[in-house]
Amino acid sequence: MDLSTKKILLTGGSGFLGRHVLNALRDEGARDVVVPRKAQYDLTQEEAVARVYRDHRPRVVIHLAAIVGGIGANREKPGQFFYDNLMMGTQLMEYARRSGVEKFVGIGTICSYPKLTAVPFREDEIWSGYPEETNAPYGLAKKMLLVQGQAYRAQYGFNAIHLLPVNLYGPSDNFDPASSHVIPALMLKCQEAMDERTSEIVCWGDGSPTREFLYVEDCAEALVAATRLYDGPEPVNIGAGFEISIKALSELIAELMEFEGEIRWDVTKPNGQPRRCLNVDRAREAFGFQAKTDFRSGLEKTIRWFRESRGSR
Question: Which of 53, 113, 138, 215 is catalytic?
Answer without folding.
Answer: 138
